[in-house]
Specification:
The protein is built from 7 helices and 18 strands. With 343 residues, the protein is of the alpha/beta class. It folds into 3 domains: 94 residues, Translation factors (Elongation Factor Tu (Ef-tu), domain 3), CATH 2.40.30; 127 residues, 3-Layer(aba) Sandwich (Rossmann fold), CATH 3.40.50.80; 88 residues, Ubiquitin-like (UB roll).
Length: 343
């Protein structure tokens, strides 16, 4: 579950015209709290216009780096990302959660990898790249990276430098959809690109996909068609385009929320998302993105029924066992009990 500490921002570095890299200082007494595996994320919390806003951001540094770094791309209409790009400065303090997430490259770091990223989906991927290259072994990295243009590409110069320094271990397949660049592809990635790459890989290689939900699903299907073991495929959702409208015949009802061994009961309104009802009643529960992307708000439904607007996180088995994304859950029963402790 989320726990937050105030950390000092050491630097705010412009990465592209619409993205910044925040470096956070980790005090000695919090080193263990902020230990992370490459690929994980943290949640940042800031009061903006008198409202507390939380958003998850993937760690783009490696576990060996001195500071903790995250990349934040400005999103149109994004409250937090706009604030981070325009207002946050070195010396400021910000609340930061402990690292979490299952999109990780795990020790003992024995496998070569194929990485597929689009846009800001590179942020957890570059942490994995740095970690592998810091290890003195023969593990190889094949990266497919899709962007509009080099100017819009996060970590473009860093990746170019790493590619030059580690020619025998790092191969980057650059795809730019808006411009023609030498030694790159001026188009989107297609099925044959993935199939051709798979044919050159060792059977033990791991596959990491990070981008919009529809992209991840497209590439995952190709990997499965080519007999890649599902347990060797990892995906991280960076943008959720798959949402449906849900109506409810209920006028109102009651929710019981269990968290940290404490119970609260509140009323909900028709078609109100469960997490919104909870937060509107000033009840502290785990959450971050509020968009069905990060999995921080998972709870178990103990009584009643809900319907989720979207789900790109939970497996069918987890849903059968009662797990729900509270930020996507619309109540379908008048009396509901959800437990954040039993996950």
């Amino acid at each position: 579950m989320n726990s937050f500490n105030e950390l000092k921002i050491l630097s705010v570095v412009k990465n592209t015209s619409d993205s910044v890299i925040l470096s956070l200082e980790i005090p000695e007494n919090l080193k263990d709290v902020f230990y992370f595996e490459p690929g994980q994320y943290i949640t940042l919390e800031k009061k903006i216009n008198d409202k507390v806003i939380r958003r998850p951001y993937s760690i783009c540094s490696s576990p060996n780096d001195i500071s903790l770094k995250v990349g934040i791309k400005k999103v149109e209409g994004g409250i937090f990302s706009t604030y981070a790009n325009e207002n946050i400065k070195a010396g400021d303090y910000i609340k930061v959660s402990n690292p979490e997430g299952s999109f990780v490259y795990k020790k003992p770091y024995n496998n070569s990898v194929v990485l597929i990223a689009a846009g800001s989906g590179i942020t957890p991927i570059i942490s994995i790249i740095k970690t592998i290259l810091n290890i003195k072994n023969s593990n190889k990295i094949n990266l497919i990276y899709v962007n509009k243009s080099p100017k819009k590409t996060m970590f473009f110069e860093v990746l170019k430098s790493l590619e030059f320094e580690h020619k025998k271990r790092l191969k980057i397949n650059w795809f730019f959809t808006k411009v023609k660049i030498k030694n790159s592809h001026n188009r989107r990635v297609n099925e044959s690109d993935i199939t051709k790459l798979i044919s050159t890989q060792d059977i033990s290689n791991l596959y990491y996909l990070c981008g919009p939900g529809d992209m991840n699903e497209f590439f995952k299907k190709i990997l499965l068609i080519n007999k890649i073991n599902p347990e060797q495929i990892f995906s991280e959702l960076f943008k959720n385009n798959m949402s449906k409208e849900i109506s409810s015949s209920l006028d109102k009802g009651e929710i019981e929320i269990i968290y940290d061994n404490y119970s609260n009961k509140i009323n909900f309104k028709s078609s109100e998302i469960l997490l919104d009802s909870i937060l509107n009643n000033n009840i502290d529960v785990p959450y971050s993105c509020q968009g069905g992307v990060c999995s921080s708000c998972i709870a178990r439904i103990k009584k009643g029924q809900i319907e989720m607007k979207t789900n790109q996180i939970l497996t069918d088995k987890e849903i059968e066992e009662g797990l729900i994304l509270t930020c996507q859950a619309i109540p379908k029963s008048k009396n509901i009990i959800i437990d954040f402790d039993d996950v």
